[in-house]
Specification:
Strands 1, 4, 5, 6 and 7 form a five-stranded antiparallel β-sheet that branches. A four-stranded antiparallel β-sheet has the order 11-10-13-14, with no helix packed on it. The chain has one helix and 14 strands, in the order αββββββββββββββ. It folds into two domains: about 100 residues, no CATH class; about 90 residues, Sandwich (Immunoglobulin-like). It starts with 5 loop residues before the first helix and ends in an 18-residue tail after the last strand. It has about 230 residues and is mostly beta strands.
Length: about 230
Amino acid sequence: MRLVPTRCIRSHRPFQGTGASLYIGVGTPGAIAYRNNRLWPIGGMFTALGGSKIGGANTLKTARVASVADPTHAIPYTLPGTLASQTVFAQVRTYKDDCECETNFRPVRIELDGSLADATGIHGTATLLSQEKRDGGIVRLRFVYNASLTGIQPTLFRALRTAGPTSPADATVSYLPKSGPIEIDTPALSDASAYTYTLRAENGATTQNLITGLSVQADATGPTAPTSGSAISW
């Protein structure tokens, strides 16, 4: 076995000066590679990889795909075709004077379509709090939106009927982040039978169903009229 001389391993200084590096992984955040292996266990012994020579690809210390030096604030990177239709995780690490900030905190999730265009969707979820029967067949739906740190944020929520005795219009409400519970009032519904509703988050053409198969029963009739009564002196 022939090991790479120490002077060869240390010949690469990717973090000179001040700047930032871009790292990419596919599928999961754990797929991001930050460093290149130079030795690999084979048959119980550590063997130098084929590129571990002066100028070899595996001699490079960092597995970054792009980098910039200060004062540049944007890292240009051309997506390779192999990333088409993949979920990609990107991490940026800053460096200064041969030292790198080795963070792996909250890498950015990017969903790419077959043309390498950004198709990142809405990743948040919703929790239904209550349904409140209102006068005239209106039902108020109350829920909380659990925003995700990844993906894009919705601009509105829509309650749409998917089954039921009538075909009411959709009900929408704008989304204000950190605004607390969200309320959507349906149009007047029939109480002949229950409706099925879907709660959907939207941002332009990007949509995400949050709650599906929601059974909604209205009260369009109200209480029956009294037929008799009595008075008590006060």
